[in-house]
Protein 1
Amino acid sequence: MARHFDIGLLRTFVAVADHGGMTAAGKAVHLTQSAVSQQIARLEASIGRPLFVRDRQLRLTAAGEQMLGKARRLLRLNDEMWAEMTGAGPEGRVRLGVPYDLVGTLLAPILKGYVDAFPRVDVSLVAGASPDLAAALADGELDLAVVEEAVGTTRGECLAVDRLVWVGARGGSAYRKTPLPVSMVAPTCAFRPAVLAALGEDGREWRTVFENGSIDATAATVRADMAVTTWLAGTVPVDLDILSVETGLPELPSFAISLQVGAGRQSTAAEALARHIRGLLGRPRQAA
């Protein structure tokens, strides 16, 4: 006998996991808190296993963790198929903010998949430093923003965690110089406070080589061995070196890649883009 999952129940399950509670999830899927609770109970009854631990803070069980990734993929496929088959997919405009270092690395294939699936949506991409993107979102200038935040301080929905690393030219020597030449993309870079704090605690003198909002120019200064920089480990270009603690540089903290959504009710296009980003980026990449 064929068995199948109810897409509506899976959508509610993912919303509860994403928002960390029944009430917030209800607002996201336009259901009452009691209706959300009933749907989760139905889904749990259908598989015969609890999906959440219900104590002071709602947490996924092992079964819930196992289901979440597959549920995201199933919902994404369902939405893409529906749009393709009916021509009734989202349309309009979505304004998305993305940090400079993630535009051409993690987000490029995700955005391509979205625009291919929803050709009637115009995506306006704004690149910037994470604090600037968060401010633009709060001011209503963006619909969604992917931001980098220190672990433990995230105000958005944490999608992945990666370690911040020092980066230098292949076989370079800039890291040996005093004061240490450091190239950062922008003065408001989310990494800057953590980097300067680490250098200060280590008693290391430093100087700024380049800060003007261009990720390509920052990479060029590093490739020329004029400076070192800091990036998330998963975004480091293959032709540059990740500098280990053996070089004498201080250890840096991990950062979260999180999704922040604008206040108020989101358009169908924005909701679809948020689901798409969660489905492909929401896979923790914490380095060992």
Protein 2
Amino acid sequence: MPASTSPIPLRKALPDLSWWTAVFRDAEIPVLAATAESLELMRANEDAFDANSIGEMVATDPLMTLKVLAYAASHRSSRLLTDAETVTAALVLMGITPFFTAFGPQATVEDRLAGQPEALQGLQRVLKRAERAARFALGFAAHRMDPDAAVIHSAAMLHDFAEMLLWCHAPELALQIRARQQADRHLRSAAVQREILNIELADLEQSLMKAWRLPELLTHITDDKRLHDPQVQCVRLAVRLARHTADGWDDAAIPDDVNDIAALLNMRQEPTLKLLHELY
């Protein structure tokens, strides 16, 4: 692992995964302006809020969710036998006053990308996709009566966090990737990422989760390479469908998504499609 890190924002690709991990591990994570504003309103009347109400607010913002979970993992007491796998669990362990002490006024993505409207639009598109994926995944988990439904929801919300961080910290590179994919719709995302970044974002995501010591279950569920794990499938298929429905239900890949989701949920195609439209 390199001892020093490159400046943010990045304008050129870093050499390898260890460099990307070192830079993003220590980089500030900006949050949505709405989250930063809500946090300050809550701070002004701290006694009126508990872990559940704060957790519900934080959980609508994938970047703030990531920030809280990473902080909780790095400050976890050695006496604790379990990880904080959700934001609410992290807040319960942390305590409300220590939370507000640790998380002062937050830098926002809107300020960071104020001079780059295309990059802000790109990030917002990923954030909306993450929210939709989380709804799908929670619906799948609930149908399967999975006891880890809350963690599956968080995993789907965070599945593409490396791409979010790329838009925040290397917007020019993120725009290059988008331009290449728009020019050739048949290009695989992983191939374009290797070409422009020297890494795949999925590998960076797993590397960062381990560097931040995020909960093992969360790291496991977001690993797309574990193809036969039903919890991984919940997240992977939710993310895939969220990507394919970004502009509606006309994408040619959606019928395959429906087939795979129907198999996961042990349902016929017609009720599966009805469920998906309800979750959307």
Protein 3
Amino acid sequence: MAYLLPSEFATKMVDAGEAKIFMSTRDTLIRAYMAGAILALAAVFAVTITVTTGSPLLGAVLFPVGFCMLYLMGFDLLTGVFVLVPLAWLDRRPGVTIKGILRNWGLVFLGNFAGALTVALMMAFVFTYGFSVEPGVVGQKIAGIGESRTLGYAEYGAAGWFTIFIRGMLCNWMVSMGVVGAMISTNVSGKVLAMWMPIMLFFFMTFEHSVVNMFLFPSAMLMGGGFSVMDYFLWNEIPTALGNLVGGLAFTGLTLYSTHVRTAPKRNLGGDSAKPALAS
């Protein structure tokens, strides 16, 4: 596959962040909506595979199909803009402001949530035949995930909150590697392979992804999960989103930017003799 050097794709990361800040409200919302909906379908797909085959590994191996589809289509996840958009501000791109960054994050959050909620409503309807019967084994599994990953953390108080925060950090460390993976190749097969590996890792390790959770928890509530909206936001979505922001930006965005865009001066071990000779 055609491979771009880190110095090349790191610059593309900054360019992408700048472009997202200046994107129109309409386009930002549409792209975020579609990203949330597609990732939600991928989550249903992976849970269904896990339940029907009894193999969480197989579900994790196949979950990245949704991530690859949405990024090949140019749609945006909150986890991705958490990493890319601040780089344009750090690079002092003209017109890029903190207000612009927060606007982008807010619009992408709303779009992702609307897309994921749409799929949650549709799948809850499917699993319950229009809310006329109890959900099947897949629906029950999703409801159980919602309870265990809200009330399950709440049982441990502050330790539980920081546990989910750290799991959110680890998640977007891997997911942001997938976002960057879409930039390191110039052909589809190379992009897919580079995206697939870190996404598979995060899903199998059950790290916390804010957009996946935008589907899992509303869907669980619709199918009988025993927790509230406040439980969902306080004991999942808020710490997960904050962890996603810190993990993706610190471990991926800033490390690549600082070492491949704003590189430190090279060491001079040879004094004057190490300086390049002037052309005669």
Protein 4
Amino acid sequence: MSSLSNKIDFAAILRVNHANPNGDPLNGNRPRTDYNGLGEISDVCLKRKLRDRLQESGSAIFVQSDDRKSDDATSLQDRAVKGLGKDFGGPETAKKASEKWLDVRAFGQLFAMKSSKKKKADSEDDSAGDTGVSIPIRGPVTVQSAFSVAPVDVTSTQITKSVSGEGDGTKRGSDTMGMKHCVDNAVYVFFGSMNPQLAERTGFSDADAEAIKAQLRRLFENDASSARPEGTMRVLKVFWWKHSTKPGQYSSARVHGTLKVNPDGTYTLENLHGLTPEEIDGF
């Protein structure tokens, strides 16, 4: 199985216009911000969108959204058991899972499944304990959280969530009222990298890298919701640095530092000798 030929670094510039790009459930679902007031979109959120776009393009995905499931699996363990069969839990688990699902060989996965066998309360034999599966797979693709270039302004609006479904309908319960939050207008940027050494372990290939590159520019397509109406989230530009060697000509920190983004979405790039990024317009 061929694996990634050379190290790759990438970045994307995003624009948010009157949308909630990533709500914080511990803060009333307000848009995530750091202590400096910069807007944040978590790496988990970005990888969720990447998985969805890859799945729409026909790739097999292990961690699927409930509303986008392409099989009848009721849980990740159920999908693993049905997808890997007798190989699940055995020495071939990592290899077979990486071969079957693109997100596993790209981002990695921890197969930590409890066994159906239970240790008897009166048993003193440790071998009779939990025989669950715990198999870590370290993926070659890392994605950082996205942060806004400047502090964000958050607008909060009181809304009616629902109509009263009880009584004679003449009174409105307190639970029908809610708040809706959005970032007025901001530019975000995030970075990522692909490691050829780790790609050898999972079989992540050049073709897989191209599949991810193609979906980065489409990150917010088919992702609309009441918090993110159509047209409020957009990828402005994707940058793709393909090194000439497996270890890479420069460190990822050095490469990522060459991109400077302004609050209006314009940018500058520092020139690195022998490494020029491919610049791709958003979808």
